[in-house]
TrEMBL record:
<dbReference type="Pfam" id="PF13409">
    <property type="entry name" value="GST_N_2"/>
</dbReference>
<dbReference type="GO" id="GO:0004364">
    <property type="term" value="F:glutathione transferase activity"/>
</dbReference>
<dbReference type="InterPro" id="IPR004045">
    <property type="entry name" value="Glutathione_S-Trfase_N"/>
</dbReference>
<protein>
    <submittedName>
        <fullName>Glutathione S-transferase</fullName>
    </submittedName>
</protein>
<dbReference type="GO" id="GO:0006749">
    <property type="term" value="P:glutathione metabolic process"/>
</dbReference>
<dbReference type="InterPro" id="IPR036282">
    <property type="entry name" value="Glutathione-S-Trfase_C_sf"/>
</dbReference>
<feature type="domain" description="GST N-terminal">
    <location>
        <begin position="2"/>
        <end position="82"/>
    </location>
</feature>
<dbReference type="InterPro" id="IPR040079">
    <property type="entry name" value="Glutathione_S-Trfase"/>
</dbReference>
<dbReference type="InterPro" id="IPR036249">
    <property type="entry name" value="Thioredoxin-like_sf"/>
</dbReference>
<dbReference type="GO" id="GO:0006559">
    <property type="term" value="P:L-phenylalanine catabolic process"/>
</dbReference>
<dbReference type="GO" id="GO:0016034">
    <property type="term" value="F:maleylacetoacetate isomerase activity"/>
</dbReference>
<keyword id="KW-0808">Transferase</keyword>
<dbReference type="Pfam" id="PF13410">
    <property type="entry name" value="GST_C_2"/>
</dbReference>
Length: 220
């Protein structure tokens, strides 16, 4: 059985992505959670990953790090899970928007860190982050319109693309980003996903404040 090493569920958007891909498709794994900015985190992650970051997937004594690499590895090992769309063009589009999420939207990430337990509707959103918000919402609308038949997710059925945009759905909820129509429908579908509900419950139950992950406030 796999072991997935993750960080705090309230904050770790990169951990959420492969965790959701595994849980939502019923692939069995053991979860090992490490608190950010702790001695145990530094020691245990360094023992299995030269990157020193989470998430890390262990398949026996073989380690895969980086959220996208983990999702790709699992998709190859479990083709029946259909983690990528079956249609070639849909699959290419899914990989395109996942790669865009993996490497882009820096202003959005920096301005709106994932913080599931929080409600922060009044933060200042700079123009660059507003542009990122608009681009993400356009991706959701366009993808749903072209490929979303057959289900409520970006490509109809749940895929790695949804796992990669789930932390953004969480961010938009935390920071009260305006969302209507197809964007709101998609957000509601992601939030209603049983695996996402499980992650969110666990995030609330942590009750751990990590000031390094909350530069916008000094306490809850």
């Amino acid at each position: 059985m796999y072991t997935l090493i993750i960080g705090n569920k309230n904050y770790s958007s990169w951990s959420l992505r492969p965790w959701l891909a595994l849980r939502a498709t019923g692939i069995a794994f053991n979860e090992q959670k490490l608190g950010f900015f702790t001695e145990a985190f530094t020691r245990q992650v360094a023992a299995v990953s030269p990157a020193g970051l989470v998430p890390v997937l262990l398949d026996g004594d073989f380690a895969v790090w980086d959220s996208l690499a983990i999702c790709e590895y699992v998709a190859e090992q479990h083709p029946d899970a259909a983690l990528w769309p079956k249609d070639a063009k849909a699959r290419a589009r899914a990989r395109s928007i996942v790669a865009q999420m993996h490497s882009g939207f820096t202003a959005l990430r920096n301005t709106m860190p994932m913080n599931i337990e929080a409600h922060l509707p009044d933060i200042d959103v700079p123009e660059a982050a507003q542009q990122d918000i608009g681009r993400v919402q356009a991706i959701w609308r366009d993808t749903r319109a072209k490929f979303g038949q057959g289900g409520p997710f970006l490509f109809g059925e749940f895929s790695i693309a949804d796992a990669f945009y789930a932390p953004v759905v969480s961010r938009f909820t935390t920071y009260n980003v305006a969302a209507t129509g197809a964007v709101r429908d998609y957000m509601d579908a992601v939030i209603a996903l049983p695996a996402m509900q499980e992650w969110m419950r666990d995030a609330h139950a942590e009750a751990t404040f990590v000031p390094e992950d909350e530069p916008y406030r000094t306490h809850r």
